[in-house]
Fold this sequence. Notes:
- By secondary structure, this protein is α/β, with parallel strands linked by helices.
- It has helices spanning 20-31, 62-75, 85-101, 108-127, 170-174, 185-194, 216-223; strands at 11-15, 35-42, 47-49, 55-57, 79-83, 132-134, 139-143, 149-153, 176-177, 231-234, 240-244, 267-272, 277-281, 288-298, 308-313, 321-328, 333-342, 350-355, 358-365.
- The strands form 5 sheets. A 6-stranded antiparallel β-barrel has the order 14-17-16-15-18-19.
Amino acid sequence: MTDNTSNTPKRVVVAMSGGVDSSVSAALLVEQGYEVIGMMMKLWAEETVDASCNTHNRCCTPEQLDDARRIADKLGIPFYVLDTKDVFRAYIVEYFLDMHRKALTPNPCIECNRHIRFTWLYENARAIDADYLATGHYARVTQDADGTYQLRKGLDEAKDQSYVLSVLTQEHLAHTLFPIGGYPKPQVREIAARFGLPTASKADSQDLCFLGDGDYRRFLREYAPEALTPGQIVLQDGTPVGEHTGLANYTVGQRKGLNVYGAVPLFVIDSDPARNALIVGPREQLGSDDLTAHRVSWISGHAPDGAIRAQVKIRYKSTPADAWITPLDDGERVHIRFDNPLRDITPGQGAVMYDGDRVLGAGIIERRPQQAPETQPSHLETASPA
């Protein structure tokens, strides 16, 4: 695509990973006439040892690097590797560890888009006079008649990644392309085959790419052992019913692996880092019809003037739930009241707000203030194993 005022093609940096989605994104942009530059970020990750005793990390293996370079060569575009190890460890890995030290359950992909792709990589792209940064995310950008940009869900609902992109700003959206956001995944693979790309049948990448083996509990034991200090499992009235192996090993709604006793099955309700206590209770105590979120960002750049109706996703794969959203603290926090209680509201996860397929904004779910334990005994304190 050329500039409207000249014959110079628009320059686009494509974030390449060696996977099918970024490969097809680059191929489509070349086909559309853009000046395309491939750029792969070398991220920090635990080193693993292959059969040849070579060390590499899980997210940026030599094979992935070779795949990305082969795709760039096939498309006839320049390809560069950007050393991102230090900034990735500082902003993503340390965030992941710190959140678990606080007994919170983070979504590192949201922070990666906030700090790595759309700050670090975005700024590097703009520094070489790129008009756009393109990624292989399943999302779409549209522009209203007044010039405002909107972030929308990807056409393929099963692959939609707007949840983890919900921290983008108007500046980002003005200079971001999602070339495959309007395609279902099977068609993306067909397009890859049409272009003769060797990644056409390549498996999708997994989350938590910086883990050497995908085991986050083992990772915490090695890098943040203080997050796994044993303590008491208690009921909401303070009655001890067991012992946990570290608050970071549990999440809201969990039942299996508790090894606690009760007249009825017990679930993780909450945690109290101040007491290093894991709070459990029966199913009817699980869930809530409201939450508060902080670090709120609004796609429009400003908060609504008052309460609005919207749908909210409390996890990446959760179903959007109808709610009233009330801005707090000049929009930097929000209170969300759901029409119906939700079971697994988890502090540390993203609360992403939608109007249909349009993303309104997002915040990080806060922990509820802890109440003093009740004094009366519970009928659950002596019973059979859950």
